[in-house]
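F.,

This is the one I mentioned.
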């Protein structure tokens, strides 16, 4: 018995690999290393460098390792890029997921976790979002993920596969033990950018818009520690392995922080008062995205353990610092 983790060398996937290995599971990673790093993987995990859209490779991997569950993280994640290059997103996120799902069906894998996103909700009419809200993505990225959700729904109905779709809000932080974190260059995410600025890698950073209808005029987001997100995956996988029903759940805390509050937290935790400039709104940013997480708490008994902005920031800063030290090693 083994769990196949696609994108297991990436930011979130690598945390899942560590969590599963910590629990004594056998883990096989399929990752093309286009944005992931094999150095963050534990030795106990088997890495297959390859493409999740390569159905023969996936089927062979499932058969060889006795895979009984799949956790699917691999995909492209940059929303503005999905607008300028939509076919890349429909290929990497939708077409390749289809091949992966078919491999699962053909090889009898019945438990399937899918890494989805709050972007499926688009620009919601209210800040607190629950899963009954109709999906209405506003980017090809959101659509590419929603299409995979739909494929899973229909495949489950036809073939008896069971799935957990987990819709992530703003994932941040890093492994508290310092084994992995957000490693990809060209970061666009707020906490990573603020951490890099605090550590002196950037001369300053920008706040994209201060005229939103929020208390301080900057956007509100629900930042979830990656370790709590992974706890949700581990619970969802156990639920499916025990024969539990398919489910679709938000992953967030239900608390929103503004861009300025996050920047203040990074300044406070790092002790560095870095330079911040006010800039124009970034295209496509909804003013507030906050998860109603009642469903996942009720269905899976999920209880966050790291729901503290300063802790999230502190772990993000530690990882960023360790990355700089690795990169400057002779
Ligand atoms: N943001 C910002 N400056 C940055 C990066 C992000 O003001 O350098 C803002 C962004 O406009 C949004 C919030 O921070 O309102 C969260 O953005 P992020 O890219 O981290 O996540 P998203 O919610 O877009 O997935």
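My design for it:
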């Amino acid at each position: 018995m083994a769990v196949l983790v696609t994108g297991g060398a990436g930011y979130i996937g690598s945390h899942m690999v560590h969590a599963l290995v910590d629990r004594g599971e056998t883990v096989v990673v399929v990752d093309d290393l286009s944005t992931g790093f094999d150095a963050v993987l534990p030795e106990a995990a088997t890495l297959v460098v390859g493409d999740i859209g390569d159905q023969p490779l996936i089927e062979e991997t499932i058969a060889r390792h006795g895979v009984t569950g799949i956790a699917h993280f691999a995909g492209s994640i940059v929303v503005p890029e999905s607008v300028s290059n939509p076919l890349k997103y429909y290929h990497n996120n939708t077409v390749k997921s289809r091949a992966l799902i078919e491999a699962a069906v053909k090889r009898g894998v019945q438990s399937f976790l899918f890494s989805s996103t709050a972007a499926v909700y688009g620009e919601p009419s209210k800040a607190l979002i629950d899963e009954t809200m109709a999906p209405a993505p506003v980017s090809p990225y959101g659509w590419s993920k929603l299409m995979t959700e739909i494929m899973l729904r229909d495949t489950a109905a036809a073939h008896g596969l069971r799935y957990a779709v987990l819709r992530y809000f703003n994932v941040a932080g890093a492994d508290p033990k310092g084994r992995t974190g957000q490693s990809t260059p060209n970061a666009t995410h707020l906490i990573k950018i603020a951490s890099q600025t605090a550590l002196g890698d950037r001369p300053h950073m920008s706040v994209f818009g201060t005229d939103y209808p929020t208390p301080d005029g900057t956007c509100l987001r629900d930042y979830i520690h990656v370790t709590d997100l992974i706890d949700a995956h581990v619970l969802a996988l156990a639920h499916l392995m025990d024969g539990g029903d398919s489910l679709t759940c938000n992953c967030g805390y239900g608390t929103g922080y503004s861009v300025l509050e996050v920047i203040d937290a990074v300044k406070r935790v790092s002790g560095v008062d870095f330079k911040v400039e006010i800039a124009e709104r970034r295209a496509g940013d909804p003013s507030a995205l906050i998860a109603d997480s009642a469903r996942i708490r009720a269905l899976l008994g999920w209880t966050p353990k790291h729901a503290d902005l300063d802790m999230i920031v502190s772990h993000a800063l530690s990882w960023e610092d360790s990355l700089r030290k690795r990169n400057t090693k002779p």
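The domain at 190-221+254-327 is CATH 3.90.25.10 (UDP-galactose 4-epimerase; domain 1).

Talk soon.
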